Every structure is written in C-alpha cells, then in structure tokens.
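chain below, 196 aa
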Amino acid sequence: MDFREELIHIVDKSGAHPAWGVKHCYRVYHLAKELSNHLTLDDEVLYTAALLHDTGKYPVYALKNIDHALRSKGVTTNLLQQMMFSPTKLPMILDAVENHMYYSEPGRSDEAVYIRESDILDNLGNIGLMRLFSLVGQDELIQTPENALDRARLFADALPDKVSTKAGKRLAVKRREETLRFLAGIKRQTSEYAWI
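prediction:
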C-alpha cells in the first residue's frame, strides 16, 4: 500500500462520521490546491495535513475534553513517526494540523494557511449546509434541525471574517450568499422557522 492509500485507510478505519471523513479531507486538499495555485506548495505536506487534520475528532483517536486540533497533532505525530515519514516535513504538517481551526491563528507556512482556509470554507455554502444537516442527532451541538439552522447562521456571520487570503475571501463571500439564500428560503417555507 502506498503512503497516500495508507492515509486514506487510517481515516476510513477511524470511525469518522462522513461529514469529517475522507471526502471532507479530499475537499480540503483540493480546495487548498485551488486557492494556492499561484504558489508552489509542498504537495506531500498539503495532502498529509489535509488527510490527518481531523484525526483527533474520530472515535478511534478522540479523547474527552481535549481540543480535537491538539489531539490531531498528537495522533499525526505518532502515525507519521510509525510510518517513518520525513522528519524535515513533519513540523510543517503538525503546524497545519494544529492550526486548522477557525478559532486558531493561521499557521506559519503557506500550506498551513491554505489548509485552514479550506477547512473553514468547507463549513460554508451548500457543502457546509449538507454537512451540518448530516450531523443532526450525531453531534452534541447539533441535536435538532433548529440547532443546524442556528449553526448555519453563526457560520455565515462569523466564518468569512476568519479567512485571510484574497482567493479565500472571494469564495467565502459566494458561499456565505449560498447559505443566506438557503436560510431565507427555509424561513419563508416554515412560517419563520415555526414549522421545522
């Protein structure tokens, strides 16, 4: 099994909910590449960080009361050391994993910045809405459709300001508009959310 396939296997066997699993990781990776196409980034670092950034959230690796980004950094360290991964690239991957959340400051490398941007953007627009509603009843913060709507409103208001690159900001505006159109339609069709 080659290295990339091994990373996919790790995520597939982790018990990850599909909203955070391999397809989310692929979207983060490909969006990071798209947003940074004017730069030359280390593709191995970008791919590895994208595939492992949420491992600390997955049932096989998660620990109660530990921030998943910090847990992901620890899990990533252990996994990559066991795989004899390049020690010169490891710090860049760990920086990207640790700082991928919207509440973190962007990491030091371009790879870390674009992983963070892409993860934030995957929570907005049509894909973000699909992910939120797939988590109803599966996430402690999203137990009902109303919780998902509240979170969508919160993300639409807060996340675009967390994006720092020009390309990311342009996409954040578009995805925010997608979210707001959806919310306005739901509001109209449910007597202002009364019939959800």
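The domain at 1-108 is CATH 1.10.3210.10 (Hypothetical protein af1432). Residues 95 and 107 are 6 Å apart (CA to CA).
thats it, cya
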